[in-house]
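thought: fold this chain, then report.
action: predict
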Amino acid sequence: MNFQYDEFSPRDIEALKPAMKVGILATINPQGLPHLTMISTLMASSARQVVWGQFMEGLSKEFIRNNPKTGFLVMSLDKQFWRGKATFSHTKTDGQDYDFYNNTPLFRYNSYFGLHTVYYMDLVSQSGGLPLPMNKIIFSSLKTMTAKFLSGNKSSSPVMNLWTQSLFDKLDNLKFLGTIDDDGYPIIIPLIQAQALDPSHVVFSSGAFGEEIKSIKTGSTVAIFDLSLKMEDVLVRGTYQGVRRLVGFECGIVEINWIYNSMPPKPMQIYPALPVQPVIEF
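observation:
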């Protein structure tokens, strides 16, 4: 995907500055698969630079050091969103951006943790601010729900537990799909209409962001990040099975084979289940 702009405008920089927003970072793991993380501190510090701050550990911080190609999405409270690609360059533990973050109310008055590292990324391209197509998203969500209940699709493989399925079925949750573009950079597609088709599949109508959904290569591995308004979230990954008709509706389907809990206090893989190991060092 080629985004239109290679710089942030002054308006973009100002719009991405508020702390109250949703930021999603896409990285690539050592196996070449997409990984999505919520990074609420994502912003543009200049016309050609993206920055974000770290205050907790997680896989994305490891991945970005091994593969600097990233994708990002920032959504404001007024439902405007920016997407783009950027290349990780370096980190700092002091300086103007470090001071800016730690003087915001979220970190300045936090008794438990502060922001300890700032990550810098060089902008490759970005979309500019665009409004979420809410009408298309609402109709796509209704089509997804109808296709789900009328298809009769059942799976005997219980990959997603009931909590994960219920999180996907909440219509007001924010959901995002990550995939790897032809140039090797990950990209993020809003996928609010996605729902759990059964315990091992996620389904979504192609009525919103349809051209991008149809351009995803069948058989490729994609990631889907689900975030609730209560700040509950889960990341799943699986094989994209392409767009097919379910009871007359064109829908994309992902067969899930991996689930990751990115919430505190312990981000960790939860499917396939990791073996329990004894603690031998204290």
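thought: worth noting. The first strand starts at residue 22 and ends at 28.
final: tokens above.
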